[in-house]
C-alpha cells in the first residue's frame, strides 16, 4: 500500500501530473503488482488444470 501511495505522491507533487491521472496510474500499478504477486505466491502449483 505504501508503494502505491508513494507512486501517487511522486507523480502528483514532484513531477506535477494532475491528481486524477496520478491516481489512475497508481491504481494500474497496484493491479499489475497484485496480480503478479497473486500468481507467483498464491498459485505456485505447476499444473495448469484450473477447471478440473
Question: Explain this structure to me?
Answer:
The chain has 52 residues and is mainly alpha-helical. Helices cover 73% and strands 0% of the residues. The protein has two helices and no strands. It is elongated, with a radius of gyration of 16 Å. The N and C termini lie far apart (34 Å).
Task: Outline the secondary-structure elements.
Elements: H1 2-15, H2 19-42
What features would you highlight for this structure?
elongated; 2 helices; mainly alpha; 52 residues
Mean pLDDT: 77
Largest sheet: none
The general outline is elongated
Number of helices: 2
Q: Can you write the helix and strand succession as a string?
A: HH
Radius of gyration: 16 Å
Beta strand %: under 5%
Would you count the extended β strands for me? Answer: 0
Derived from helix and strand composition plus strand pairing, the structural class reads mainly alpha
Low-confidence regions: none
**Amount of helix:** over 70%
> First CA to last CA: what distance?
34 Å
